[in-house]
Queue: 2 jobs
Job 1
Amino acid sequence: MRIAPIYNSIPIQYAFKGTLDDSVKNHINKTAKTEEHKVVANSTIEELENYMQKLHPNTVLRKKARPQDQVEMYNYLLDITIPFTRKSSMLKRGDVKIRIPDPYPYYLSKRSVMSCRQFSEGLNKISPDNVDALFVYEALKQLEINAKASSRSAKAWYKTNKLMDLIIEYQKNANIDKRITREQLREIVKNA
């Protein structure tokens, strides 16, 4: 008689993916005044949820505190926020932003459910891989900042090492093909 172990399964990656925050859902639902608009609002919410499921598990699309019609992507694992923009001139300052194509708004209107629908259509034109790559890029910028400060404080040194681990974990969970290795991260820290 042969006894097989009970827990002989292969660990799988996260079953859940990025989410749509309730603040965004409530905002879209508040713009719907008629039954026809409610149908558009529900399909917009569903479309945004489907898009978010393609992103890293800890990513959420949420409303900003001010102005309230603005939205942003936030990743809990890396503790990084990336706002949206439609203007390419804002990218010249070194800020990392998700650029929505020109004919689409980069915010959720307070008055028009169709504007929310247009935002969703514009967001769906952006590859989820590009959004994940922006989070990695922003994390690398933060790693350089921490590395420069790590020579002066033990707390910054700890943050640098922790962020390196988080970047490796983020890439694994997001299924990024061309991953940055730990050696490459150490080289970035060394050169900072």
Job 2
Amino acid sequence: MNQPLFTEHRSMYSSTRKHPTVIRIRIRMRDLIDPDCMRSAVDTTMKRYPYLCVELKNREGNRWEFIDNERPVVITDSLSGVELNSAESNFHMISFSWQDNWVVMDVFHALTDGTGAYEVVRTFLYYYCSNRYHAVISEDGVRLAGDVIGAEEWDDPVLKATDLPTPPRNDMPTALNLITAARLEEDTDSTVYSIAVDEKEFMRFNIENDGSPATMISLLLSRAIAKLYPDRKDVIRVTMTVNQRRALGTPLAHQSLVGGAFLEYTDALKDWPIDRQATAYRGMVFAQSREEAVLAGVASMKGIAQMLMSKETDQERLGIVKMIGEMTNRLVTATVSYVGKAGFLDSEDYIRDFRLWTSGTGTFLLLEISAVGGRFTIDFLQSFSSPIFVNAFLAELEENGIKYDLQDVKKLELPNVRLPWSQ
């Protein structure tokens, strides 16, 4: 089935070799990986996701589309993975790799978002753990090969959405630029710091202080930055990702459907106790998560997609996406993303670590939160190596009695996506 591109354009044209728009999920299993079980699990899993088994093609009029790709999805025995949309990946935009007891899945962010990637991982774990451990794994909430796949999974709901509210005019003041503030212009080594906190303990802290995982992490990060720069002139503005599927009424859609709620740490908030600050942040999230507000964001996404499709050349489209990226950099200090509790059910008995990485592009931080195996893992992704903001964040955790484990510090490595204009 041919799939003309629509919302995929922005992610596709924003992908570069230095900052590829790829989601990388890394899972450390209990035992060494069995390559035969893995091959079987990947093959069966991908039968369930035909809309992800595709190849990018250019049609008449410079119109891009995905076409069916019946080649096997590639598995390599190296954690570096392969270049997507290339001969190495059999021209797929999803691949798997493994080493020792680690499994990695890479997928082009233009194909799906964290919610969609979790669905694939949930299916893979079901088949892998069932086979590897001869275990009975619950099928609850797991998409399985042989399911009937309806239009609600295939179709792009943004393309079909009508009667959308008019997006509000953007008149937000400039946000604090962390690279400029910390003078990190020469530090270009993308790095990820992985921090783990106990799920029960952190949820208890949230309940005591009227918080929720993503809003509390956003608040703690805001407080940490505010202490670093007490005399700042620009506002600290954290964007918290919002899943647009509920507002669209399309919970099964596979596309990348992510909006955002803007959380500003204003002078009025700084002297309040943390529970009152958390209440204020939750209020901001509530207001911006209402259906009308989310659909206004969808309208903005649709307008961008239509603008990109109206241009005839890739260079024109690249120019528009670059302009949007520069505007985003002016408006955002950091982004916090949380898909929600993974819900891998019985498979979690065999998982020891779970990480979600994506490109830490722009001048802002990106914090990816995962809830797997009884703990929250916060992947602190940044386009530089300096620990200045990580250290401030960890100090904020300590000050609030939140125990943490800095699990490791790694170079942020993501596979390139081979695209005609970036070869």
